[in-house]
From TrEMBL:
Stated name of the protein: Extracellular solute-binding protein
Keyword Transport: yes
Source organism per UniProt: Humibacter ginsenosidimutans
Family of the protein in this entry: Belongs to the bacterial solute-binding protein 1 family.
PROSITE patterns, per the entry: PROKAR_LIPOPROTEIN
InterPro entries, A to Z: Bact_solute-bd_prot1, SBP
Alphabetic keyword roster: Signal, Transport
PANTHER family from the UniProt entry: ABC TRANSPORTER PERIPLASMIC-BINDING PROTEIN YCJN-RELATED, ARABINOSE-BINDING PROTEIN-RELATED
Length: 437
C-alpha cells in the first residue's frame, strides 16, 4: 500500500513477529518454565580469574542493577571476579574499537547497529557454537538477531528495547485533556499548545536532540510516523525522502512554535528524563526505564502522574518504535573467554532478567506470559508489547557510525534553523552516500 513504512526485512520483521506473539500469549497463559534459561543457572564450569566488562550508564539497566547482578554472580561463581566499567552511550562504540587491540575488555555491551561493523572487522567473537539450540525457541526471535551477522551470533541479547511515549496526566487534566487526546502527533501538538497557553508549563515538550545517537533515535520514530525509512527496499540510503523532509520540518516547527524546550538541542535521554521528573515538561519520548525513574520518589516529583504508551501515530497512521536492542559480546582480544561466557550466560538468564524487568524487558518469550513478571512492570509491558510490533531500524551498514555522525550534524543544522530541512537532508544523503561507498 502506498505510503506504508518500509520496515526492513530481517531484523525488524523477526523481532516484531516474535514479540507480538509473546505479547498475545501473555493475555491467556499463566506462565511456563524455560529449559534453556534454567540451565544457565548451573554453577558448574566457567573458568576462573578476573574479567573486565564494559557497560553503559544511561537507559536500561542502571549501574546499581548491574552491580547487584555482578555481586550475585560472584557469590555463585567465587572463582571469577568482575570489574565493571560504565561509560556514556556516546563513548561506548569508540571505547570498544580503541580497546580491541589490547584486549582490555572481556565483555562489552553493544548496540543493535554495531554487529555488522564489529564482526566484519574481527573485533568480536563468533559465539554460535556456544548457543544452546533451545535458545532459538525460548528467546524472542528478534532479540536473537540483535547480535547476528551473516547467520552467526556474535553476542547474547540483553533485552529488546524501543522508545515509548510518556505524558503527565495531571498536567493534561488541567487543560481538560486525557490520554485519548495524545494518541496522534497532531493531538500532541494541540495539547501542547493548550498547556503552554494556559501557563501550565512553559515548554510542554522535551526531546533528546543533542548531536548524538539519541537524536537519530528520536528522528527515526518521527520518520516512521511520516511513512519513511532510512533506506530503500534494496538497501540503498534514502535520507532525503519527502517523508524525511516532512518529519524534520515537523520537528523544527515545534521549536519555532515555542512548544519544544530549546534546551532539547543539548539533551540526551537522561536530561529529558530529569526534566519531566522535575515537572518541567509534560511529554516526551524515552526508553522503557524512564517509567521506573518517574515513579522513584528519590529522584522524581511526579510519582504516579506519568503514563506510558506506544508512540503516537503520524499522518500516515503509523507509529513505529525505533529498534534499540542491545547485546553482550566477547571481544576477540579477551584472554578470559570462558569466564566471560559464564558471566554473560548468567546475567542474560531468564531469572536474572525477570528480576530486573522494571529496568529492561526480558529476552525470553515466556516472561511475557508470566503474570508474576508482568505485574512487576505492567504499564511498560503493555506499552512495549505493542510498540515492539512495529519497529524501524537505523541503517544497517558497516560504517554506520560515520553515516550516523553525518546525519546528526545535518539534523541539528535544520533544528537550529541554519539550513532548511530539505537542504540538511540533501547534504546528509550526499555525504553519507559518498562515505558508504
Amino acid at each position: 500500500m502506498e505510503g506504508l513504512m518500509k520496515i526492513r526485512k530481517g531484523t525488524a520483521r523477526r523481532i516484531v513477529t516474535a514479540l507480538a506473539a509473546a505479547a498475545s500469549v501473555a493475555l491467556v497463559v499463566s506462565g511456563c518454565s524455560v529449559t534453556g534459561a534454567t540451565s544457565n543457572q548451573g554453577a558448574g564450569g566457567g573458568d576462573s580469574g578476573t574479567i573486565n566488562a564494559l557497560f553503559m550508564k544511561q537507559a536500561g539497566y542502571s549501574e546499581s542493577d548491574v552491580n547487584a547482578m555482578i555481586s550475585s554472580f560472584e557469590k555463585k561463581y567465587p572463582k571469577i571476579k568482575v570489574n565493571p566499567t560504565f561509560v556514556a552511550y556516546e563513548a561506548l562504540h569508540d571505547k570498544i574499537v580503541t580497546s580491541a587491540p589490547a584486549g582490555t575488555y572481556d565483555v562489552a555491551l553493544m548496540d543493535v547497529i554495531w554487529p555488522t561493523e564489529f564482526a566484519s572487522k574481527g573485533l568480536i567473537t563468533d559465539l554460535s557454537d556456544k548457543f544452546p539450540s533451545s535458545w532459538k525457541d525460548e528467546m524472542l526471535g528478534g532479540a536473537l538477531t540483535s547480535a547476528e551477522w551473516k547467520g552467526k551470533y556474535y553476542g547474547v541479547p540483553w533485552g529488546p528495547s524501543t522508545k515509548l511515549f510518556y505524558y503527565n496526566k495531571a498536567m493534561l487534566a488541567k487543560v481538560g485533556a486525557t490520554g485519548a487526546d495524545v494518541t496522534t502527533w497532531d493531538g500532541v501538538l494541540a495539547v501542547a499548545k493548550k498547556l503552554k497557553d494556559a501557563g501550565v508549563v512553559k515548554y510542554p515538550l522535551t526531546w533528546s536532540w543533542s548531536q548524538a545517537e539519541a537524536l537519530i533515535c528520536d528522528y527515526a520514530v518521527m520518520l516512521g510516523a511520516f511513512g519513511g525509512d532510512f533506506t530503500t527496499s534494496d538497501g540503498k540510503l534514502d535520507l532525503n525522502s519527502k517523508e524525511g523532509v516532512a518529519a524534520l520540518t515537523w520537528m523544527r516547527k515545534t521549536i519555532t512554535d515555542g512548544l519544544t524546550d530549546p534546551a532539547s538541542l543539548t539533551y540526551l535521554e537522561d536530561d529529558t528524563d530529569k526534566s519531566m521528573a522535575a515537572g518541567h515538561s509534560a511529554m516526551q519520548l524515552n526508553w522503557e526505564s524512564a517509567f521506573r525513574d518517574f515513579n522513584d520518589s528519590s529522584i522524581s516529583s511526579i510519582v504516579g502522574q506519568a503514563v506510558v504508551t506506544p508512540p503516537p501515530t503520524g499522518p500516515t497512521g503509523l507509529n513505529p518504535g525505533v529498534n534499540g536492542s542491545m547485546a553482550l559480546a566477547i571481544p576477540t582480544g579477551s584472554k578470559h573467554k570462558d569466564a566471560a561466557w559464564t558471566f554473560i550466560k548468567y546475567i542474560t538468564s531468564q531469572p536474572v532478567q525477570d528480576k530486573y524487568a522494571k529496568s529492561a524487558m526480558p529476552n525470553w518469550k515466556s516472561s511475557f506470559s508470566n503474570p508474576d513478571v508482568v505485574k512487576t512492570n505492567p504499564e511498560v509491558f503493555k506499552a512495549a508489547g505493542q510498540a515492539y510490533d512495529k519497529m524501524i531500524n537505523r541503517p544497517e551498514v558497516a560504517n554506520y557510525n560515520t553515516v550516523s555522525q553525518i546525519l546528526q550534524v545535518q539534523l541539528q543544522n535544520a533544528l537550529l534553523g541554519k539550513v532548511t530541512p530539505q537542504q540538511a537532508l540533501d547534504a546528509a544523503q550526499s555525504q553519507a552516500s559518498a562515505a558508504k561507498d
